Amino acid sequence: MNTIVIVSQYIISINIIESVLKNLYKILVFSKIEPALDYIYNSMPDLMILAINMDDSFTINILNNLKKDPIFNQLPVLAVLPDQFDISRWDFSFAEDYIWETELEREILTRVNLCILRSKRVVEINPLTRLPGNISINRQIQDRLDKGKEFAFAYADLDYFKPFNDYYGFGRGDEVIRFTGRLILNIVKNKQPNNSFIGHIGGDDFVFIMDLNLMEETSQEITDAFDKIIPTFYDPEDRMKNCIESIDRQNHVRIFPIMSISIGITSTKTGTLSHYGEITERASEMKKYAKQFKGSCYKLDRRRDLFAGQSRLTTDTISRK
C-alpha cells in the first residue's frame, strides 16, 4: 500500500482527505512540516499533501531546499490552497500539483492518483527502498566529474545476504534491504546534509557520495550501526549461535555467520577520471577487497597516477573486527 504524508493544521481538510483515501492508502498526519521531515528522512512516502497559507514562506522555503536534494526531489508534493490564495504571487516549483480547499471532496482522489502515477513514470527509483537507481547514480557521478568537483564515492554491499534470504525468505530479506537503505541514508545525511547522495543499485548493493574528509568517519559509523542492529533480524536461537545453516551458491549446506557490510571507497584524488564507469569500477574493486576480510569493514583506495601512467595501490583498513 502506498504511503501519503499529510501536513496540515486544518481538521476539516484532514478529515475530508482521510475519509476519501484511508481505504486506499496508508495515511500519516502531521500538524507541522518539521516532524513530517523527520519521518520522510527515515521512510520516504509516495506523496506529500501539504496545506499552504498565503504567509507560509517558512514551509515553502523548507520544501524548496528539500527538493534541491537529489534524494528527495523525487518526492511528489500536492499543495492544498485556500480559495483566497493568489497563485500569481508564488513560485510553485516545489509542488507537482495543487488543489483548492473547496475541491477536496470532489477532486482529491483523482489528483492523488495522478501525482503518484506521474512520479512512478518519471522518476527512476528503487521500489523497495525509494532510493535513486542506476540512471540517477551515473548522472550524479558524471555531473560532478564534468564540473571538476572533488568527491569520494563508496560502494557497499552485504556479506552473507543470499543465505540469509534463502533461510528466512524474501519477506525478511526485503526488511534487511530497507533497513540498510535507511541506515545509510540517515547517517550520510546527518554527516553531510548538503551535496551528498545515496543510491540503490539493486539487491544488497548501495552507493553514496560525500566530501572526502567525511567519508571514512561516515563509513565507520555505518559499519558500527549495522553490526549493532543486524542481529535483531535473526531468530533468537540463531542469534545465540551467531550463525545459520543454509545453502551456498554450489547448493551445498554450510554454516554462515551473522551478516556484515563491506564498503569500498575511492575518490577523485586517486587519478584523472572523466567517466562515471571509471570511478564505479575502482570502488567496486575496493569493495571486493573489503569482502576478503572478516566482519564489517571499509577499505579506502589510495591510488595515485604515476608519471609513467601506471598506478600503485595502497589500502587503509578500518574495522571493528
Describe the overall structure.
The strands form four sheets. Strands 7-8-6-11-12-15 form a six-stranded mixed sheet, sandwiched between helices. A five-stranded parallel sheet has the order 2-1-3-4-5. The chain has a two-stranded antiparallel ribbon with strand order 9-10. Strand 13 (304-305) and strand 14 form a beta hairpin. The two termini are 40 Å apart. The protein folds into two domains: 3-120, Rossmann fold (3-Layer(aba) Sandwich); 134-319, Alpha-Beta Plaits (2-Layer Sandwich). The chain has helices spanning 11-21, 33-42, 57-68, 104-122, 134-146, 161-168, 170-191, 212-229, 236-241, 276-290; strands spanning 3-7, 26-30, 47-51, 77-81, 97-100, 152-159, 197-202, 205-210, 243-247, 253-257, 260-267, 297-301, 304-305, 311-312, 315-319. It is of the alpha/beta class. The model is unreliable at 305-321 (pLDDT under 50).
Instruction: Please tell me the overall pLDDT.
Output: 86
Number of helices: 10
Structural class: alpha/beta
Helical residues, percent:
40-55%
First-to-last CA distance: 40 Å
Radius of gyration: 22 Å
- CATH architecture annotation of the largest domain: 2-Layer Sandwich
Morphology call: globular
Helices and strands, with pairings:
Elements: E1 3-7, H1 11-21, E2 26-30, H2 33-42, E3 47-51, H3 57-68, E4 77-81, E5 97-100, H4 104-122, H5 134-146, E6 152-159, H6 161-168, H7 170-191, E7 197-202, E8 205-210, H8 212-229, H9 236-241, E9 243-247, E10 253-257, E11 260-267, H10 276-290, E12 297-301, E13 304-305, E14 311-312, E15 315-319
Parallel strand pairs: 1-2, 1-3, 3-4, 4-5, 11-12
Antiparallel strand pairs: 6-8, 6-11, 7-8, 9-10, 12-15, 13-14
Helix pairs in contact: 1-4, 6-7, 7-8
